């Protein structure tokens, strides 16, 4: 198995890769029938895994020809995440077929633990990217189009000149009530 993140070959494969692939299903309650599922569009895939980038040259089960420094890896992934840049993610041999598509970096966590003091331990989560463009709409009903064109324009209000005078002091006098309270 191999993993490329925007051309960066990961030197250490993760122990586990989690692929979440959901279908949009809404449950609706119908009288005298009960709950019924309504199948919608598929949701965006998410891929999540945890691994590490060795800080030095090690012997062991690492991918050949993949020299990535922890610092450059962190800066590249953070840049992709903060800029919201869709990246090319390629995972070969996993899940019975290869994954090769555009994804966004949804989460990127970095940590350290005993035994890996100089290495970069990371957890990363990707969310599938789908491009979206506004659709061009053509109106077939000419009457509706003309009705929108004939809307009355709002009248412009005259601008008021700013006043430099202070408002005049107003006073009022409270007159005692002529009604008397009745005592029962």
TrEMBL record:
Residues 164-184 have a biased composition (Polar residues). Residues 138-184 are annotated as: Disordered. Residues 138-149 have a biased composition (Basic and acidic residues). This is LysM.
């Amino acid at each position: 198995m191999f993993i490329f993140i925007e051309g960066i070959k990961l030197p250490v494969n993760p122990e586990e890769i989690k692929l979440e692939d959901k279908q949009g299903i809404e449950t609706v309650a119908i009288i005298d029938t009960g709950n019924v599922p309504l199948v919608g569009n598929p949701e965006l895939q998410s891929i999540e895994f945890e691994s590490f980038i060795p800080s030095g040259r090690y012997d062991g089960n690492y991918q050949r020809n993949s020299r990535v420094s922890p610092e450059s890896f962190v800066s590249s992934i953070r840049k992709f995440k903060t800029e919201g840049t869709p990246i090319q993610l390629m995972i070969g041999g996993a899940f019975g077929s290869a994954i090769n598509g555009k994804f966004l970096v949804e989460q990127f966590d970095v940590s350290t633990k005993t035994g890996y003091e100089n290495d970069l331990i990371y957890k990363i989560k990707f969310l599938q990217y789908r491009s979206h463009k506004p659709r061009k709409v053509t109106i077939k009903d000419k009457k509706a189009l003309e009705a929108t064109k004939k809307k009355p324009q709002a009248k412009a209000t005259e601008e008021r000149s700013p006043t430099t005078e202070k408002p005049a002091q107003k006073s009022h006098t409270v007159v005692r009530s002529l009604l008397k309270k009745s005592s029962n």
